[in-house]
């Protein structure tokens, strides 16, 4: 369960390392985001000499969450961290060329097939 002011890790090589969520997209009353949902975040920590800088405001998709996520078959999946992948403005394409860590298959079902193709491991 990702909500505003949550600190998340960034799981791609765009240059950002840590971000803070400040809006969950989807509805005016929507308070939490789960795997496969869009959020708006501010970069809190970034690598030097990369395209993404500190204080940049970007769109991202949630790829990992600590809270157990119920799959359609009734099983649950959970991760050790909250993580997102930064997206290009107005597209469903990742900003970075690589995606680090495991990615659940629900990301492909949500329409982010490029993220799944860049991922190292799909669960």
Q: For the CA atoms, what is the radius of gyration?
A: 13 Å
Sheet with the most strands: spatial strand order: 1-2-3-4-7
- Please name the fourth-level CATH homologous superfamily: Ribosomal protein L14/L23
Number of domains: 1
Rounded average pLDDT:
96
- State the share of residues found in helices, binned by percent: under 10%
CATH architecture: Beta Barrel
What does this structure look like?
- It is built from two helices and nine strands.
- The protein is mainly beta.
- The protein has a single domain (7-122), classed as Ribosomal Protein L14 (Beta Barrel).
- The protein has a five-stranded mixed beta barrel. Strands 5-6 form a two-stranded antiparallel ribbon. It has a two-stranded parallel sheet with strand order 8-9.
- It starts with 6 loop residues before the first strand and ends with a strand.
